[in-house]
From TrEMBL:
Keywords: Membrane, Transmembrane, Transmembrane helix. This is Membrane protein. The chain crosses the membrane at residues 12-34, 40-61, 173-194, 218-242, 354-371, 377-397. Residues 63-141, 246-326, 391-470 form the YdbS-like PH domain. Coiled coil: none annotated.
Length: 473
């Protein structure tokens, strides 16, 4: 099957211009605020106009020269203004076609298409920034025809409509939003943003406006901190609601398709053959409420697409996890109770979690005396954290599948098929050797860099058993 060479939609020119402006905007901001002795006369502004005109012209030429088509079993792209570039991607190497639609694309009824291959990379193998939805369907159909050796019949289309489909409920979406760990991300983002404008923000005047707080009571400070936390929590909830609204999972014989979002709609296709592991995560709040998040670890993908991990189900009642896995990924279903760590591992887990608390408490008590004594509350928290990490760690082997459990902050269970394990390492320190303990590290091919899962302080015989199970393969 063959396409005549096509251009992306003219909206692509706007997107190219926005991309070009973004690449220069940081320089303009620095020049404007740090310029100092620069004479902002008419020649300066004429220079700005000339740069903008150049970006406009290059965006138009880039759109004009960009063409794509399918021919002789290859997805072909030609682009380049001054240097003509060609990229030919064999169709059999195409693993997935991911679809996004930002605000601009949605206004014009267009989508952004990212074509991924098994090799992965920093960016997708090919990106079509603005094409019509029917063109996406034509591309997918052409690839399917080439791979399957036959055209799609009406029966096939009917089967596609009847595929197993999961849609997030309003209750689950609200739980996912209210129990997400996005508060820390938002606080970090705000701090990082403010830090970029230290020279601009008039801190002294701001401090003068709130000088009355210098003599405020502890209660006032506590109320202000609580209000700030509530505001960031609300922002986090809104962000998650927008990101995971209309979250849908569809499965056919060869791949799983995940779509989500309001302002930026996304659709990701993950070939089932490329799935390396399943990760079931419970952050402390969701664990308390009995909910989990299920991730797919898949090979391929790109760093720009954050292909290291993909959320399969944002929030699922703990009792429904196995039901959903049995329906969508039956080879990973039937999670079992893990073999726990030996009791002699407990003291090592407690020590690792208590040490940071002690390191924080001592200088605070020395410097701040009475107020520093409040930091002692970190000790029982560290002790309980260490106990939970010990209690939740373990392993179990079920035929050709390894199940590992561990806790950093969130409780995590990983399900890995033996033939998907890239490497397995057994580590032993001096103190572990004295207690007959070992650490197991399992690496899979996930995204661009791969991913490792570690369970510390296993019984030496259990660690040897796991290594022997993998070596036997």
């Amino acid at each position: 099957m063959m396409f005549e060479p096509k251009r992306i939609h003219p909206v692509g020119m706007i997107l190219n211009l926005i991309k070009a402006i973004k690449s220069y905007i940081a320089s303009f901001i620095v020049l404007f605020f740090v310029g100092g002795n620069i004479d902002f006369n008419i020649y300066f502004f004429l220079g700005i106009v000339a740069i903008f005109a150049f970006m406009l012209l290059s965006s138009f030429l880039e759109w004009l020269k960009f063409k794509y088509w399918i021919e002789d079993g290859e997805f072909r792209i030609e682009h380049g203004v001054f240097v003509k570039k060609k990229r030919y991607i064999p169709i059999e190497r195409i693993q997935s076609i991911n679809i996004r639609a930002g605000i601009i694309q949605q206004i014009f009824g267009l989508v952004n298409v990212q074509i991924e291959t098994a090799s992965g990379g920093i960016e997708a193998e090919a990106i079509l920034t603005a094409i019509k939805k029917e063109d996406v369907h034509t591309i997918e159909q052409a690839i399917s025809i080439y791979k399957n050796g036959a055209s799609l019949s009406q029966d096939d289309e009917e089967k596609e409509i009847e595929l197993p489909t999961y849609k997030i409920s309003k209750k689950e979406l609200l739980i996912a939003a209210s129990t997400s760990s996005g508060v820390g991300v938002i606080l970090s983002a705000i701090a990082a943003f403010i830090s970029q404008f230290d020279e601009i923000i008039p801190y002294e005047k701001i401090y003068e406006q709130f000088d009355f707080l210098a003599n405020a009571s502890f209660t006032i400070y506590a109320i202000l901190i609580f209000i700030a936390f509530v505001i960031t929590w609300i922002l986090s909830v809104i962000g998650v609601l927008l990101k995971y609204a209309y979250f849908t999972v569809t499965k056919d014989e060869k791949e799983i398709r995940i779509s989500k979002g309001i302002f930026e709609k996304q659709q990701v296709s993950i070939p089932i053959s490329r799935i390396q592991a399943i990760r079931i995560v419970q952050n402390p709040l969701r664990e308390l409420l009995g909910y989990s998040t299920i991730y797919i670890e898949s090979a391929g993908g790109s760093a720009s697409d954050q292909g290291l991990s993909t959320i399969l189900f944002p929030v699922v009642n703990r009792k429904d996890v196995q039901i959903l896995l049995a329906q969508y990924l039956p080879s990973f279903a039937n999670e079992q109770t893990v073999y726990p760590l030996p009791k002699k591992s407990l003291q090592r887990y407690l020590f690792r979690k208590l040490l940071p608390a002690v390191v924080i408490c001592i200088p605070l008590i020395i410097v701040y005396l009475q107020w520093g004594l409040l930091s002692i509350v970190l000790l029982p928290i560290g002790y309980y954290w260490g106990y939970l990490a010990f209690k939740n760690a373990g392993w179990v082997i079920n035929d050709n599948r390894l199940q590992l459990s561990f806790r950093v902050i969130s409780k995590t269970t990983v399900l890995i098929q033996r033939n998907k394990i890239q490497s397995m390492k057994s580590k032993i320190s001096y103190f572990q050797r004295r207690n007959g303990l070992q650490t197991i590290s399992v690496t899979i091919k996930s995204g661009v860099l791969g991913k490792s899962f570690v369970v510390k302080d296993l019984d030496e015989r259990d660690a040897d058993l796991i290594v022997d199970w993998y070596s036997y393969s």
